[in-house]
């Protein structure tokens, strides 16, 4: 690809949009204004005697001016063609009607048409060819003019009729030739450079608009992803809450049925546990579903007062509530215990709330799985908080064997894994090595993502 192609943007993938109806209408009125302007300029020159030596009459002058003005309505629809025709028109009129072509309004209109062609051309390679044609024609015309001695003499007479051969830095003939070259370079070069700058500006504006549209689309996707992530989090919470409480209620109800005739007091105690679990489940579900409903509230609607909202929002569970969880999870057939081990006093309370909630849910889901899928008589959970290592570890083990026909769906373990990975931790789950039962071990970082799986935190004891 040539240097000209690269400079004009022929290798760019962007194409300037075609003009709209309003722009085309404005160009028609602009053509009318251009014709009036060049006509007034010509008549002023005629009134000053500037057309005394023009070789052809007034009708041909108006033909030249009108034909040039007729190119204006097509400057944005057919820009490369207009550029080539403007150059050809300038050459022909310069040879036939030199004084008409040299008036300032006509020169300004030529400049404007070449500028418009460069600024609006959509096929940049075709534009490069049109510009090359214009420059070759102008160079040939100047070479032909300079090649004729009388032509240079006439030009010199126009500039300095009574001056000696040299009064400045350059000889008169050199000065005339150089002045014409400089004028033409500034004229054509200025039109081309300014047109290219306008095209580059339009391209950058289009890129900014496209980038803004892309950012808006991506922002919408991120908002949608955030909503989906939040709803998935709430779905996990609902699964953990419902699975745990329903499992506990099922076990307690079964125990009450078995001892109802022999030990009414034990049956009553089991039914009380069912009642507590049902209340807790309903309360936590109300809180979670209220969070979902709050996402659908119209931001323009006034919020009701706090006392008007049914069911106060209780805080999310923390490590301090694990003993109460163990008490609720214990049944006549399976005893659950939870122990919190701290590297220093109060370390559990200093764990970030998201990690505390996730640890609580892991213990809750693990104990619920013991009730659903195991014949265990006991289950123990140990939560170890090591502030020095910045790790919180949860380990839940039981002493049972898998219960037949209760393989489950795997959603519980998947939810634990998602919680751990979301916070930068990890999980191990499977049968205990060298003993009967199942073991779940989950770890969370308390000060940022864990770079490697930590060793079991047995050094603090249980």
Question: What report would you give on this structure?
Answer:
- With 462 residues, this protein is an alpha+beta fold.
- The protein is built from 13 helices and 5 strands.
- The protein has helices at residues 3-8, 21-47, 58-69, 79-96, 98-102, 104-120, 124-147, 149-159, 172-259, 264-294, 322-329, 353-373, 411-422, and strands at 335-342, 378-386, 391-398, 426-431, 438-445.
- A 5-stranded mixed β-sheet has the order 1-2-3-5-4, covered by helices on one side.
- Helix 12 links the parallel strand 1 (335-342) and strand 2.
- The protein is rod-shaped and about 135 Å long.
- The protein starts with a helix and ends in a 17-residue tail after the last strand.
- Mean pLDDT is 80; it is low at 295-312 and 455-462.
Q: What is the number of E strands?
A: 5
- Overall SS class: alpha+beta
Strand share of the residues? Answer: 5-15%
Count helical runs.
Answer: 13
Radius of gyration: 44 Å
Q: Order the strands across the largest sheet as they lie in space.
A: 1-2-3-5-4
Mean pLDDT: 80
Main beta sheet strand tally, sense and closure:
5 strands, mixed
Distance between the first and last residues' Cα: 76 Å
Unreliable segments of 5+ consecutive residues: 295-312, 455-462
* Helix fraction by DSSP (H/I, runs of at least 4): 55-70%
Q: Give helix and strand order, one letter per element, not per position.
A: HHHHHHHHHHHEHEEHEE
User: Could you say which overall geometry the principal axes of the C-alpha atoms support?
Assistant: rod-shaped
Task: Quickly list its features.
462 residues, 13 helices, disordered C terminus
């Amino acid at each position: 690809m040539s240097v000209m192609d690269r400079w004009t943007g022929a290798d760019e993938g962007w194409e300037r949009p075609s003009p709209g109806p309003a722009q085309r209408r404005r160009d028609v009125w602009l053509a009318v204004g251009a014709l009036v302007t060049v006509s007034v300029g010509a008549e002023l020159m005629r009134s000053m005697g500037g057309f005394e030596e023009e070789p052809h009459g007034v009708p041909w002058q108006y033909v030249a001016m009108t034909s040039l003005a007729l190119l204006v309505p097509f400057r944005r629809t057919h820009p490369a063609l207009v550029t080539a025709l403007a150059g050809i028109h300038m050459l022909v009129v310069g040879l036939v009607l030199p004084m008409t072509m040299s008036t300032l309004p006509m020169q300004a209109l030529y400049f404007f048409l070449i500028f418009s062609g460069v600024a609006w051309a959509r096929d940049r390679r075709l534009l490069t060819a049109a510009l090359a044609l214009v420059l070759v024609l102008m160079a040939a015309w100047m070479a032909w003019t300079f090649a004729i001695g009388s032509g240079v003499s006439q030009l010199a007479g126009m500039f300095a009729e009574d001056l000696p051969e040299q009064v400045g830095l350059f000889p008169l003939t050199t000065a005339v030739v150089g002045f014409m070259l400089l004028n033409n370079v500034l004229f054509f070069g200025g039109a081309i450079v300014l047109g290219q700058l306008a095209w580059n500006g339009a391209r950058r504006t289009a890129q900014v608009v496209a980038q803004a549209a892309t950012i808006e689309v991506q922002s919408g996707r991120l908002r949608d992803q955030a909503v989906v992530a939040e709803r998935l989090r709430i779905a996990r919470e609902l699964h953990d809450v419902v699975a745990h409480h329903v499992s506990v209620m099922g076990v307690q109800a079964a125990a009450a049925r078995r001892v109802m005739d022999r030990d009414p007091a034990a049956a009553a105690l089991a039914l009380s546990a069912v009642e507590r679990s049902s209340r807790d489940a309903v309360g936590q579900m109300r809180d979670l579903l209220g969070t979902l409903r709050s996402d659908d509230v119209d931001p323009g609607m006034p919020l009701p007062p706090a006392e008007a909202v049914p069911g106060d929002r209780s805080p999310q569970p923390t490590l301090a509530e694990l003993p109460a969880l163990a008490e609720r999870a214990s049944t006549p057939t399976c005893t659950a215990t939870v122990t919190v081990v701290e590297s220093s006093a109060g370390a559990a309370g200093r764990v970030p709330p998201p990690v505390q909630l996730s640890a609580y849910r892991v213990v809750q889901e693990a104990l619920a799985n013991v009730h659903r899928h195991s014949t265990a008589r006991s289950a123990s959970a140990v939560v170890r908080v090591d502030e020095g290592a910045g790790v919180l570890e949860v380990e839940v083990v039981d002493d049972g064997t898998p219960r037949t026909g209760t393989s489950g769906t795997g959603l519980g373990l998947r939810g634990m894994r998602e919680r751990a990975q979301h916070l930068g931790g990890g999980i191990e789950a499977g049968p205990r090595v060298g003993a009967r039962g199942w073991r779940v071990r989950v770890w969370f970082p308390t000060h940022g993502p864990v770079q490697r799986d930590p060793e079991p935190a047995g050094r603090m004891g249980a």
